[in-house]
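seq as requested:
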Amino acid sequence: MMDWTDRHCRYLHRLLSGQALLYTEMVTSPALVRGGALHLLDHDPADHPVALQLGGSDPVELAKAARIGVSAGYDEINLNCGCPSDRVQSGTFGAVLMRDPARVAACVAEMRAAVDVEVTVKCRIGVDDQNPEEVLPEFLARIVAAGCERVTIHARKAWLQGLSPKENRDIPPLDYDLVQRMKGLFPNLHISINGGVETLAQAKALLETGLDGVMIGRAAYHQPVDILGEADRLIFGIDRSTTAEEAVQAMLPYIEAHLTSGGRLNQITRHMMGVFAGRPGARIWRRMLSEEAHKPLAGPALVEAALARVVQITQDARDAQAALAADKARNPVGGT
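struct tokens:
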């Protein structure tokens, strides 16, 4: 989710769900420790609970980055051992670390010793020609011994050679059964599953198998209201749901504050394109924002105008459906 789940994205997502744990995009430990890129840690107090996802492979440097993250207010430090992109591999972190569980364990141990919040790991079931049945239990045993109590497993291998990052999200087959068996082997380890989950119904079904959590990435980004807007009610049992219209209205003061501080509208609205996914007017919404939000004078008025168009289109669709139903009632088909 690099370049996706930035602070503006997370603000929108928190408006939709008060319970879901949010994650930052991956931030590399060298960027924080050596590069001083502390702006990457900017977040709104409303984000919480929120985890900082780190990329790195040097235990000492990761411990320093973890301390910086905790000082910035993050509730969890997560080590990414699942990203297969070339630029991540070249830095010897991400999914390539599945080949070196001892190093990952050393990283976890150093971070655990450095901070007083949870240190968690996100991983794959294996990479390249590894046998997941063999490598995944060993990997988990190592990080558990190092002090990791929560892990998120993307239930696919990563092919570091021959497949692009996008292909690595789709082509390697999912193996949910293997992840579920890991829960049996490590009953005290909090295991969340990731990969291929596109609906809350799927998430509920996976939770019912005994897994402790479900991580949803791109589906939550592209259909945020369907996933996050209903998560509190359907997953957490809290009588709360948020409509697309409510979310957009709630974003307006945040947009105004961002523009006042010198920001641009499209830095926020690029994360709002999917708010009306599957709804009448969704195409108009996306078109208005994509064509106009980058302009220098674009502001909340554009968002309000786009929202008004969607509301009108939605009402027109409802009126048309009501008229059709009334016509059918007056002129029923069939008879005796």
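The CA atoms of residues 125 and 168 lie 12 Å apart.
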